[in-house]
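Researcher: I need the complex structure. Ligand is zinc ion. Inputs:
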Amino acid sequence: VHFDTLVMGARVVTPLSAEPKDLGIVDGRIAAILPPGAQADATTEIDATGMLATPGGIDTHTHVRWPHDGTHTVDDFFTATRAAVLGGTTMIVDFVPPGADGTLLQRCHDRVDEALPDVVVDFALHPILTSASDQVLRTIDRIVRDGFTSFKMYTTYQDRRVDDGAAWQLMGAIAASGGVPGFHAENHELIEDLAARQANAGNVRVRDFPDSRPALAEAETIQMVSLYARRLGVPVYIFHVSGAEPLAAIRDARRAGTSLVAETCTHYLVLDRSVFERPDAWKFVIAPPLRTAADRDALWEAVLDGTICAVGSDHCAYRIDRKTPIVDDHRAVPAGAPGIEARTPLLFDGVQRRGLGPRLFGQITATRAARALGLHPRKGSITVGADADLVLWRPDQPWRADEATTASPHTFALYNGMRTQGTPEHVFVRGTQVVRHREFVGTRGHGKFLARPPAARSHHDEPAQARLPLDGRHAA
Ligand SMILES: [Zn+2]
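Model: Output:
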């Protein structure tokens, strides 16, 4: 056999082991996993002795070139995904933003067309649903069949939230189509009431931000949508779980029979609300908020026991002067922060520090996400036949967050100055080397849109709202 590329001697991370192997790549796929030192013929040979080969990272949550204030955030699909690969991420799942232009189906395809010429990594999209109009409900089946199989709904933010009724109708239509409904889960009324009381009392400084969105609001909405999902016989995806109380709601829902995919984000695993004592506290205005150190530790427990299935960055590269508050008022600061590049190095370090080992790193940065997205084993695993999305790590090499190329010079660095161990030295996307010795060597437009297959349909054959099982007798 002749390989296009032979990666020699790296410890190869699979769910079962992390042993030295040689990896042969042909036509963008892993063609052979050989004992180290096996004589093989290859166009390009890479000596990876002492390195760790992990599946390329999958970032389940990015907002690239995100519409905001009549313009958009300051990265684009090239600069953001260049930053992604420099960190060791080889696939992203971004969103189809809400908007008034065109039909939802058209906007899904427009977002693909926006990304394709620029994107360096493969990508999938979660359409955002903001209305349960007949037109939207009727089009969901087609959207799922076109490969946009997971959706996001916000239960808060006045300009985009779905109320309980709309959530129920949309989940029914998604269930009938074999898609997966997902939620930014926070109880709107609870948050709004607290915000009004805080404003009356004058407690709206940036440091008051974490108290404005309590964990209770998250837990309550997770309970509600989990109940709906269980009744419909559909899985549900919970975006950016922030700590112990929402985790308890997730475990309760699973015990009660809900098939639930829980995602957290880098910042909840790496930071805690003590950053609100810092002068640059404004950077950390992110919703749901950073919680306590105990919440952070609870999330690591949940990573370890399998409750958490994915870790996204929630990357959103606001222009620094738009994010910096003119007055000390958190309501003037848009929620969100960049982080597409730092995600994998921070997780690599976090896993090592906690003594959890490289196999868990592969699981939480790639494998579990690929399963949840319906892309495993093509993505998220180092197996024969899988896409050759690979990261070769130098496990002992120091990494500094502020040395990293960010997605844009006009945004800010959330993890500025943080020192960790483990650097992504070489990165491959479908067998093509895009990072060589920490330098970007990829090309604009190398990435592809991944149309995902629908899951098995729920017990409903047609997306007919009239037959939603409101009385529970139809529940599986
Ligand atoms: Zn987000």
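Model: Summary of the prediction. Residues 280 and 324 are 9 Å apart (CA to CA).
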